[in-house]
Design brief:
This protein is mainly beta. The chain has one domain: Tachylectin-2, Chain A (5 Propeller), CATH 2.115.10. It is 9% helix and 43% strand. It contains four helices and 26 strands. Strands 12, 13, 14, 15 and 16 form a five-stranded antiparallel sheet that branches. The protein is globular. The termini are far apart. About 4% of the residues have low confidence. This is Esterase-like activity of phytase family protein.
Length: 366
């Protein structure tokens, strides 16, 4: 029997369609929904008894990033001369209290104050580190609270400052477009106060996670907003566009009525393997600290759809009794969460956290 070319084409297209329906690219639709705490410990940030101006320094670790070889951390407190708020430690020595970290003493790192989040571009070429942007004062004495650093992966010895120009030593120039993007009916034109605790990078967007918004540092509300701006890379420099806008305004309490309030955004990370974003929300109220983990597809985030709450095997919200501040993947399915418990003597097992330590948690997701 002879099959006409037209009929042969139709049959071939039908078989191709059926084959495409049976093929599922990894992570194209299904995102993790279950998380299990599979490890925890205490990170030694500096020697016991470390002090500045006679006052003990607490390790309030607020940012973490794993480069596949070593872990980078940032403490949101200033350190004594010769040390640094940014430091590294190998994964295998993470819990070893006898081995101090390696500090990054470059002046550019020391010029930034109150670091909050690391990010990496999906191509693995650049690393970024942001401060909180929560303080500003006429005259520029607080400009160092407004800084984003970036460097070529593997070349952390030569960090650059992300600005709207080329010569500034801080990123305070980014305040104006951020404040304009966050303007609302209460503060049309420009939001007076905000706090950045999340930073993420897609192939062409930088995203800023906002935890606090309002009139001033002592008059604000907790929020979970995300501001995005396009970027490009030229001559080893990251350049920002002028299309700043709020792309997500999430309300965590709508996911589960049992969740405590208020939950503010404390970390935002992009997962290029799964084409999704991970979010941490945390609570710090009357001596109580707590945190929850969320996930959302890339398309859903930019459509301002709700994040999905990660739950334990029993269906309850997964949470940690710490103020989780940042997360990083140490392999495909394991996240390391670093905690900034301020000066609370929180527990890890039966061990009480000391001033020179920060608690961490490992969560396995599926």
């Amino acid at each position: 029997m002879t099959i006409s070319p037209t009929r042969f084409t139709a049959v071939a297209l039908l078989l191709l369609a059926l084959a495409c329906q049976s093929i599922r690219l990894p992570f194209s639709h299904k995102l993790p929904t279950i998380g299990t705490i599979t490890g925890e410990g205490l990170l030694t940030c500096f020697a016991p008894g470390t002090a500045v101006d006679g006052k003990p320094v607490w390790c309030e670790a607020s940012a973490v990033w794993y480069d596949g070889n070593k872990l980078f951390f940032a403490n949101d407190k200033d350190m004594p001369a010769g040390q640094s708020s940014v430091f590294t430690k190998s994964l295998v020595s993470l819990a070893d209290s006898t081995r101090l970290p390696d500090y990054l003493p470059q002046a550019t790192f020391s010029n930034g104050t109150k670091y909050e989040d690391f990010a990496q571009t999906p191509d693995g070429k650049f690393v970024l580190l942001s401060t909180a942007f929560d303080r500003v004062k006429p005259g520029g004495s607080w400009d160092n609270y407004n800084t984003i650093l970036f460097w070529r992966k593997g070349d952390e010895q030569h960090p650059h400052v992300l600005t709207l120009g080329d010569s500034a030593r801080t990123s305070v120039s980014l305040r104006q477009p951020l404040a304009a993007a966050l303007a609302d009916s209460d503060y049309p034109g420009s939001l007076p106060y905000f706090k950045i605790e999340g930073l993420a990078a897609t192939e062409n967007k930088l995203l800023f996670g906002v935890r606090e918004a309002g009139k001033a540092y002592d008059n604000f509300r907790h929020v979970d907003k995300i501001v995005a701006v396009s970027y490009s890379v030229a001559n080893d420099r990251i350049r920002l566009s002028n299309d700043w806008k709020v792309v997500a305004d999430f309300k965590p309490e709508t996911a589960d009525q049992k969740l405590p309030r208020p939950l503010g955004l404390s970390s935002l990370e992009y997962d290029p393997a799964r084409q999704c974003f991970w979010l941490l929300t945390s609570l710090e109220s009357k001596g109580q600290v707590d945190a929850y983990l969320w996930v959302i597809s890339k398309n859903d985030l930019f459509a301002d759809k709700p994040f999905h709450l990660i739950r334990n095997a029993n269906g309850d919200p997964l949470h940690v009794n710490h103020k989780a501040e940042d997360l990083t993947f140490i392999d495909k399915d394991r996240l390391l969460l670093i905690h900034d418990d301020d000066r609370f003597p929180t527990l890890v097992g039966r061990r009480v956290r000391q001033a020179n330590q920060a608690a961490y948690t490992i969560v396995t997701v599926k």
